[in-house]
Amino acid sequence: MADGNFKQIVDADDGTITYESETKNGALTITTTYDDDFGVTGTSVEKAYANIKTISEMSENFQRAWSAVKDNLPASFTATDQVVQFGEDRDNLVVIATVDDATNSVTNGDVLRRITAGLMKVMRAHGSVGSTTI
Fold first, then answer.
1. Is the pLDDT score of 130 beyond 50?
2. SS3 at position 72
3. CB count, 10 Å around CB of 129?
């Protein structure tokens, strides 16, 4: 859905006017194109990382382990309204912010942390998360 910020595009050949808007939601960039009457003509979603999921889409074991350790994580993980996403990048999980948080110098789409083998060991100790594959 557009946030009211549209970029006008004028076709150099025939002068046709179209519009485009871009919205960022964590690791996802959603681009919507519109005709001259602002009717939607297309939508594309670009993922900054593979296999993007919210905590509710993760395995029950991962959710249990995350719940056990999240209160010991930096405030940027638990700030008011911060809903994190998880993605895959180079055989690691990445934790991605979906809300700007000036207090913690976090911007929508920032990687808050890579969950590496060491952190996975801690999480396994609290809930048997299995491998890093989400």
1. no
2. helix
3. 25
Alpha helices in 9-116 (DSSP H): 60-69, 75-78
Give the list of residues 6+ apart from residue 57 with CB closer than 8 angstroms, or none.
none
Would you say 59 and 120 are in contact if contact means Cβ atoms under 8 Å apart?
A: no
Residue with tokens 């969950």: 115
Residue 104 sits at φ, ψ, to 5 deg, of -110, 15
Q: Residue 79: how many CB atoms within 10 A of its CB?
A: 16
Question: Residues 2-5: contacts with CB within 8 Å, 24+ apart?
Answer: 2/32, 2/34
> Which residues fall within 8 angstroms of residue 121, CB to CB, at 6 or more apart?
none
**pLDDT tier, 125 (very low <50, low <70, confident <90, very high otherwise):** low
- Give 44's contacts (C-beta < 8 A, 6+ positions apart): 30, 31
Domain boundaries, the chain: 7-47, 50-127
Return the structure tokens found at 113: 């942390």
Name the residue type at position 69.
V
